[in-house]
Structure formats: structure tokens, C-alpha cells
Amino acid sequence: MSIMRFMTNTDNRPVTSTSSARISYFATPSELQEPLFDSSGMSRDNIRRHVRQERNSLSTEEQSQLALIASRHMLAEIQAQSAQHVAVYLTHDGELATQKLIDALWELNINVYLPLIHPFCKGHLLFVRYDRDSVMVKNQYGISEPKLNVQHVITVEQLDMIITPMVAFDEHGNRMGMGGGYYDRTLTQVVNNKPLAVGFAHDCQEVSQVPTDFWDVPLPVIITPTRRLAI
Ligand SMILES: Nc1nc2c(c(=O)[nH]1)N(C=O)[C@@H](CNc1ccc(C(=O)N[C@@H](CCC(=O)O)C(=O)O)cc1)CN2
Ligand SMILES: Nc1ncnc2c1ncn2[C@@H]1O[C@H](COP(=O)(O)OP(=O)(O)OP(=O)(O)O)[C@@H](O)[C@H]1O
């Protein structure tokens, strides 16, 4: 997999930007698609429902092309960080697909981990090593996860990067997930960006503002098929 150079161009952003986010465009702004979805006044549930519908309406072909482009950017990020232990997720419900990225990481001998819903500690995740021959089981949401083997568990502080799934995000790095608070609880364990939490999502998942609560931890970096946001 080749690594694309980041193209930086902050001119002509098609939406009003009020944040201090540094945005690198992988695509030129004219190639950026839709205007930003105005989520002001909407409840978390309504935003979640709207964005889940949007990302699920992408065709299989679009999904796979966008995932390939975004995976190249994410791989460049991982290599720039010299990350050796990277938590990824397995695609669910129209999320930006990760299998091509996982294949590239395996090829490069970078250790891959997946979230596993903690069997006793409600609302918490464990991260477990994922190899080509891992035995997989489905969790309560129908998402495959490696069968729990304590020898394959890594602590959050031992990870270098957590590629974080999300439903919606905004330009301030605020994220909203599927509603379980699993990643919120994980991200409270991050100290000085170790591990670095990097959001990975389709452009159509950006909204004007994600309503936040005290437990929400903003993401320092978000990668989409067209952009890299550094907050
Ligand atoms: N790919 C992926 N894996 C992940 C997450 C994720 O967001 N994406 N998670 C991030 O936290 C955790 C799982 N959290 C999830 C929370 C809710 C649903 C879900 O589909 N909920 C249904 C309702 C199901 C029910 O009520 O039992 C729904 O909203 O339709 C899925 C995953 C761990 N693994
Ligand atoms: N750090 C935390 N400590 C305690 N409870 C939390 C924490 N984070 C989230 N929660 C609880 O989890 C519930 C779900 O949170 P929220 O809707 O923000 O999840 P989410 O961001 O959509 O999901 P996820 O983080 O799994 O992707 C909240 O109602 C809250 O009570």
C-alpha cells in the first residue's frame, strides 16, 4: 500500500470554521462533498439516527473506495507516530471499513488489537490482540471480537494508538458513539496523548456541533477520506 502525501490547503473551506483545528486536506476543497449538517438544537439520539442513516446510504462501491483512501491516510499517521501497538475496530453499521488497514498493519508486523466488551465490568472495553488466526466470537451487538484469552489482553497505557469508531463528530474533536459510553470510559485513561486516540469516520459523519457531556473526551486527531483534523 503506498502512502499518500498530505496536501495542506486551508483556503475555501466550504463551511464557516470557528475552531483552531488545523485541517489538512487530502482532497482539494472543491472535491469535498456536502455542506456541513446543521445539528444545532438536535438531541443526541436524533443526531445519531440521522448520521447512522447517512453513512448506511453509501453504496458498497463508495464504501470500499473511501475506505481504501482513508486507510492510506491512517497508515501514514500510524507510521508517522511509529506506533507498534494499534487498536482498531471491525466495521459495523456503515462505519468506515478497516479491513484493508488491518491487512496492511499485519503485513508490516504492527500489532493489531480489537475492542472486546468487558465480561464483568459493565460499559468497559478490553483490548485484545487480533491476528490472522484469532478465534472470533460475536458480542451482544453482533460484532465479531477475539475470544477472550487473558494472555492476549493489552492495557490502554500499553497501546500507542486507538483508532476510535464514532457515529458523529465536529470540528472541535467532540465525538458521539453508538451510545454505550465504552470509548468514553476508555479515553478517560489516556494521559498526554498516550495512547493517541485518532477518530476514523466518513466525511458525512461530521456535524456542526456534537452536544457534549462532562464525560466526553475530545479526540486530538480525526481522519476522514478527505481530511486530517488536528485539534
Ligand atoms: N465497530 C465497532 N465496534 C465496537 C464499538 C463501535 O462503536 N464500533 N463500540 C463502541 O462503543 C463497542 C460496542 N458498542 C456498541 C453499542 C451499541 C451498538 C448497537 O448496535 N446498538 C443497537 C441497539 C442494540 C441493543 O439495544 O441491544 C442500536 O443502536 O441499534 C453496537 C455497538 C465495542 N465495539
Ligand atoms: N467516563 C464515564 N464514566 C461514567 N459513565 C460514563 C462515562 N462515559 C460515559 N458514561 C455513561 O455512558 C452513557 C453513554 O454515553 P454516550 O452517549 O456519550 O456514549 P457514546 O459516546 O455514544 O458511546 P461510545 O463511547 O461507546 O462510542 C452515558 O449515559 C453515561 O452515563
Automatic annotation (TrEMBL):
Q: What is its EC number?
A: 6.3.3.2
Q: Does the keyword Ribonucleoprotein apply?
A: no
**Which cofactors must be present for this protein to function?**
Mg(2+)
| Reactions catalysed | (6S)-5-formyl-5,6,7,8-tetrahydrofolate + ATP = (6R)-5,10-methenyltetrahydrofolate + ADP + phosphate
Q: Name one Pfam family in it.
A: 5-FTHF_cyc-lig
Q: Could you confirm whether the keyword Cell membrane appears in this record?
A: no
- Enumerate the Gene3D superfamilies for this protein: NagB/RpiA/CoA transferase-like
Keyword line:
ATP-binding, Magnesium, Metal-binding, Nucleotide-binding
Q: Which PANTHER family match?
A: 5-FORMYLTETRAHYDROFOLATE CYCLO-LIGASE, ATPASE INHIBITOR/5-FORMYLTETRAHYDROFOLATE CYCLO-LIGASE
- Xref: NCBIfam families: MTHFS_bact
Q: Which family does it belong to?
A: Belongs to the 5-formyltetrahydrofolate cyclo-ligase family.
The entry's protein name is 5-formyltetrahydrofolate cyclo-ligase
Protein's organism = Shewanella saliphila
